[in-house]
Amino acid sequence: MSSKEARTYHAQAIVLSHIEYGEADRILKLFTLEKGKISAIAKGVRKIRSRKAGHLEPFTHVNLFLAKG
After folding, report:
1. Number of structural domains in the chain
2. Which residue among 13, 23, 27, 42 is the one 20 to 30 A from 67 at the CA level?
3. C-beta neighbour count of 45 within 10 angstroms
């Protein structure tokens, strides 16, 4: 990561696929216009009371706030 690159950013993306990770998380494969194909971890989306789970299914268009690290 270069010093000029932001640690957090907003992105519009399409969810390509997901992999279950741990008890409550998912690893998402996303396609964004700015960064191309990227992977991201969605924390807590598999919990029963999660309001985010339905929005992160394959082929959905989402607005995301991503953080590197």
Report:
1. 1
2. 23
3. 20
Task: Give domain status of residue 42, yes or no.
Answer: yes
pLDDT recorded at residue 28: 96
Residue 51 CB partners (closer than 8 Å, separation 6+): none
**Cα separation, 11 vs 36, whole angstroms:** 11
Q: Tell me the two tokens of residue 36.
A: 């191309």
pLDDT of 54 higher than 60: yes
For residue 53, the model assigns a pLDDT of 79
Least Cα distance to 31 among 5, 68, 58, 4 occurs for 58
Is residue 2 predicted with pLDDT exceeding 90?
no
Q: CATH no. for residue 42?
A: 2.40.50.140
CA dihedral in degrees (50, 52, 7, 27; nearest 10)? 90
